[in-house]
Specification:
Length: 505
Amino acid sequence: MKWLKRFHLIVHTVWYFGLLQLLDGELRHPVLRWLMGIVPQSQASQTHSNPVRLRLALEKLGPIFVKLGQVLSTRPDVIPAEYSVELAKLQDRVPAFDGGVAIAQIEQAFGKPLEQIYYQFEREPVASASIAQVHQAYLFDEAGGQGVQVAVKVLRPDIAPVIEQDLALMHFAAGWIERLFKDGKRLKPREVVAEFDKYLHDELDLMHEAANASQLGRDFENSNMLIVPKVYFDYCSRTVMTMQWMNGTPISDIATLKAKGIDLKQLARFGVEIFFTQVFKNGFFHADMHPGNIFVADDGRYIALDFGIVGSLNEYDKRYLAVNFLAFFNRDYHRVATAHIESGWVPADTRAEELEAAVRTVCEPIFNRPLSQISFGLVLMRLFETSRRFNVEIQPQLVLLQKTLLNIEGLGRQLDPELDLWATAKPFLVNWMNEQMGLKALRKNLMKEAPDWANILPSLPRKINDILEQQSRSNSSESLYKQLRNQQVLLVILVLLVGVLVFKV
């Protein structure tokens, strides 16, 4: 009956903070609107603004709902901007669990006593969140003495059943929101909860985070801008993750950074360059780069922490971003509109001129500022807001990217208020576009596919000939057969030209 008690708490919290009143005008059935009118209002529902009431309610419901609010804060295509701003204030802070419980988790994960796993282990955690907490420890060296210092992340015990219970209630509520409210289908509550469901289950598997950290570490190996802690996979499991201990100054501690002689302007530029390197070179980015997850080393490099949330971009996503950023900053709103229609993210019958006008209306005020003061994240957010009117399908990876970009911009301008993001980012966009077009780009893509072509090309003429013979037997038209024969010759010539291009250009 635990779920019933939890359900009662949720219903009471919804009433206490007047959350249903936020959607009063959206109720479909008049009887439901009448019922809403006779339900007494609580004092809390009358003393705070609507966005604040939603934030307080999520905090009251606990860590899982706090995380849902954090996810919603990155969805301006789903909720209004004032709600996004308020929900961004939610903090994932919960009391630590007992160190003895953490030790039991570790021993169960590796099947042996703690003393045989770590040379030294601190029972008191150094950080705690809703999913896991972190302890300081040392590994053994080859001689059995004290080895490298490590951070040990331990999953909260029995967290999975709690998450499953809350997720089940969220799925249930999402279905009814879609049925009862006028705008329910467009808000896609079931899709939002499904996305959140996947996000939480990824965080419940610390091997997933370990793999993310390892990938990012390879991408920035020997970088002069970013340090990624080494992962010790022999000491990792689904409930325990061990990685290199990182000493540094929190990025938000500006006074200490200045006292250590860190070049803040260079640090700000590094942040932008790291972001665009991840996006346009690697297609794999750290998607949770808020101040609590970033330290600065004494040599002026960033230190990345907490790799539970990452984003991946394919070539199509990268092209979409590059085209839109360049079009925005050239004020080519027609290209922005056609790019969205070509992508299939707006209905096919959308008139480009209407979308162009909407984008212009939203973005022209932004460009009344100097380029150095324009926010890339704000541009994307405005674009997503416009998308609500045109039923644009916003891709989850792009929402993650927009959230990350806002974090990077905020950090960069905190370090250097005069930071010109456009000047730093434009070379990445222009170079990427140049690499994707022309003969060099074609040669690069063909070389990438060369192993498959090596197997396909030798047998291709024979396979084409077999198809043509079958066509000639099934169709008595001589002209058709000749036409297909001509196409075969042209195809062979094309293959030969491709081979020359690949190996001679």
